[in-house]
Amino acid sequence: MKRRSILKATGLIGLMSGIGWKTSIARIPPHNWSNYDFGAPPKINDRLYQGPFSAYGPDATAPGAEVIMATTPSNLAVPNYGMGMVTYICDEVGPPKIDGETLKESIEKLAQFPLGNVLYLRVDWRDIQKQPGRLDFPDHWKITFDMAQKYKKRVGLRIQLMSPVIEGHSVPDFLIDKIPFVKLGNTKEIGLPNKVHYAPRYDHPEFIAAFKELDNLLSQEYNGHNLVEFIDTYMYGFWGEGHTWPFEGNIFPDYQTAEKTSILLFEHQAKNWDKTPLLTNTQPDYSHVGNSEVLDRTIRTYNWLRTDTIFIENEQIEALSNRPPWIGALVENGISNGSANSLRLNEGITHSDSIIYHAKDVGANYFSLWNWHQISADGLMSYYQQFPDALNDLSTSIGYRVRPSWIWIYESEGYQNLIFGLTNDGISAVPGALRIFLKDEKNNAQWGGSIDPGYPLPGKVRQVQITLPKDTGWERLRLFAELEVKNKRYPVTWACSQKLNSDGSLTLQRNI
Prior knowledge:
Elements: H1 12-16, E1 66-70, E2 84-90, H2 103-111, E3 118-124, H3 125-128, H4 139-151, E4 154-160, H5 173-176, E5 181-186, E6 196-200, H6 205-222, E7 228-232, H7 255-272, E8 278-281, H8 291-300, E9 304-307, H9 314-321, E10 329-331, H10 340-343, H11 351-361, E11 366-369, H12 377-386, H13 388-395, E12 402-412, E13 415-424, E14 433-439, E15 446-450, E16 461-467, E17 478-485, E18 488-492, E19 506-507
Parallel strand pairs: 2-3, 2-11, 3-4, 4-7, 7-8, 8-9, 9-10, 10-11
Antiparallel strand pairs: 1-12, 5-6, 12-13, 13-16, 14-15, 14-17, 17-18, 17-19
């Protein structure tokens, strides 16, 4: 996609005159994200003591502490919540259509793709709602949830309010005659050949009312659902990404109306999705609709980010690279299906491998396994079998990979105190607050609490103490971890090479 192209359609300005099309001069400017004040991290209620720790001298806080156990990094993928590889089940042109396969067979093969942790559905509004007051999900939606349950995967969702690659509108038929549309024009840059693009007036009362009903219905069913990993923020424009590129300007009468509408849409979603993260696109504000403000509110409500490419805008790379540590991020980019003309080799490196390694550069939590508009398990497997190294490397480094690298013990006033030196071998910080706790072998007791949100950071150690009750021994206790995101907790498997229990916990025993 040539997003840096300048629109030069002859006669476009005249075509747009009289329909409220304006180019704003009052847009909110982008800013550097490093050291930017996005407000406080998520609140935790049971913070564990995290130092300083010293073993010597009269002021020692951990007198005589000795290392009793150590762990080393795992070289396997760890399928925890808040991270992983995302297998696309459908995109803007629909689910896979493979000769000789049923839809269920095609989706099941995608669900079985060995690197995938999350199954992703991208559908248009009209695909899931045919009439007011109810949702009617298509077959590929239902099959995907069945396959997620069967293969212990999770599901990510996007509902598009507008798409350039389908005939007609993305909104349901029952809404078309109730709202005005603005004619954008024709372009060869995106979408169907010769399609004349129209955008709904997002600020129209009928559109707002129908949108709120859609989000209410969807969130009532899936907010906090045990299979749903995230839902993409519904934004203005093509694919819901916050733009109508390559058409300049926007469909609103002025910038203030555009920004107000974008904020209204986001705030409604943020209120409804109070348990499941929203992923907001980091799209620069090409269309002047208030994307910077929406991104700011995304961070302040502890929602996450996504980008639709890793090779275009400086702004997106800046945002992902310098986001607050407790904020997750997804990098979406189509990759080769293994065919010769899709490899684009340069000095022996495929274009897809270059994309994969650049996703690591911004500390991604998620990466897309996606044959753009040609979704196929065979296509993914064809590329993977020819060029496995980059995908294998990313699948075993993406996201956060936490383990107790050192475990110390010391006694004070009859109490046993354990200090855990937690490290993170992944490429991203923890997208929420990590909690650790100890249980005895019979699960009769539990001691622990929370680490500061975002920690441990990649390549750094966060030390944390748990004090046991008097006369409680440490050996054979089991160390658990869980991730807290938007007040919902998810079990975390330790990313260490030492033997774990079936529930992902580590049994404490001296190995030093």
